[in-house]
Design brief:
By secondary structure, this protein is α/β, with parallel strands linked by helices. Helix content is 43%, strand content 17%. The N and C termini lie far apart (54 Å).
Length: 352
């Protein structure tokens, strides 16, 4: 089977390829990525020289390049990870999110529709629980929860989900969709909460937490997510959506404190030395209060369940960043440094 993976130099896509390329040597994986700011080819070390792997620099917003890629590789499966994904960046620069997440998805769907016109094939779309908006104190998102996106990022992903379903219903394109909770793990771009806190703790820099740190998220270890995607591809029903959650929910400030404890244990410093670095900063606009995923459908229909607890996954993540400082330095571009400065340093610390 030939598989096109979009965004395979990004966080989840790279982990997906790291997991599956060595396991399925009979399949051929073509990674297409435009190598934007959060992409890193170093994340593919170990699979980049595999005989069943190929990288091509392609922007999914370039319809002509996509058509050419499909014509040359003639895929049986498309796994669509490529997306602008950082909520904070979408607030200050939403246009890039519309270009990648909406127009890019449209181009991919059109390329797949032309290529799969003779029948067969599958388009798997990877999305987020943020399309559902914010929960109250109780309950969890199901596949029937109505869409209510709060940010330009989540609105662009909601639009891409709707496009995928429309191409299935209108044109008969075989599709599957997964909506996941917050991912964490190795190779995550260090502007996201968990890697940012790990690296700042290691460098004894302030640990910026939005608001009072009470926003709650459901955390999913990236390898568990990648296994869920492949399980849905293999066992899920065409045309269906499956929610994927890690089964662990906590306020952000508790997550930061757990990171401080683990970094302290792994490096031999006092935990208080790190927790004293926590700095509550002004909240971001439209910050959803709570996400929680009901994964009953994928468990029932596909037999998937997460293998990692949050404790075991977080410890693996801390150890990965400790052991891969070269990777961190390669991805810490000038753009990254200036973004952290703009996004956090300009927010006034308002509570300790």
């Amino acid at each position: 089977m030939k598989i096109i993976v979009t965004g395979g130099a990004g966080f989840i896509g790279a982990n997906f390829l790291q997991l599956l390329v060595p396991r399925f040597r009979e399949h051929h994986f073509v990674n297409i990525d435009n190598l934007g700011y959060a992409a890193n080819l170093a994340s593919l070390t170990g699979v980049d020289d595999a005989p069943n792997y190929l990288f091509e620099k392609v922007d999914i917003a370039d319809a002509e390049a996509l058509d050419d890629t499909f014509a040359r590789h003639r895929p049986d499966l498309v796994v669509h990870f490529a997306a602008e994904s950082h909520v904070d960046r979408s607030i200050v620069g939403p246009r890039a999110f519309l270009r990648s997440n909406v127009e890019g998805t449209f181009n991919l769907l059109e390329a797949a529709r032309k290529h799969f016109a003779g029948g067969g094939g599958l388009f798997h779309h990877v999305s987020t629980d943020e399309v559902y908006g914010s929960l109250g104190d109780t309950g969890a998102f199901t596949e029937e929860t109505r869409y209510d996106p709060s940010s330009p990022y989540s609105a662009s992903k909601a639009a891409s989900d709707h496009l995928v379903r429309a191409w299935s219903r209108t044109y008969g394109l075989p599709v599957k969709i997964t909506n996941c909770s917050n991912n964490y793990g190795p190779r995550q771009f260090p502007e996201k909460l968990i890697p940012l806190m790990i690296l700042h703790a290691l460098e004894r820099r302030p640990l910026p937490v939005y608001g009072l740190g009470l926003n709650r998220r459901d955390w999913l270890y990236v390898d568990d997510h990648c296994e869920a995607i492949w399980t849905v591809i293999d066992k899920g029903r065409v045309g269906e959506t499956y929610n994927v959650g890690g089964g662990f929910e906590a306020p952000n400030v508790d997550v930061v404190r757990r990171i401080c404890r683990l970094v302290a244990e792994e490096t031999g410093c006092a935990e208080s030395e790190l927790t004293d670095l926590i700095a509550f900063v002004g909240d971001r606009p439209g910050h959803d209060l709570r996400y929680a995923i009901d994964s009953a459908k994928i468990r029932r229909e596909c037999g998937w369940a997460p293998r990692e607890t949050f404790e075991s996954g977080l410890r693996k993540t801390v150890r990965w960043y400790l052991g891969n400082q070269d990777w961190v330095e390669r991805i810490r571009t000038r753009d990254y440094a200036s973004w952290i400065e703009r996004n956090y340093a300009e927010r006034r610390d308002h509570r300790k």
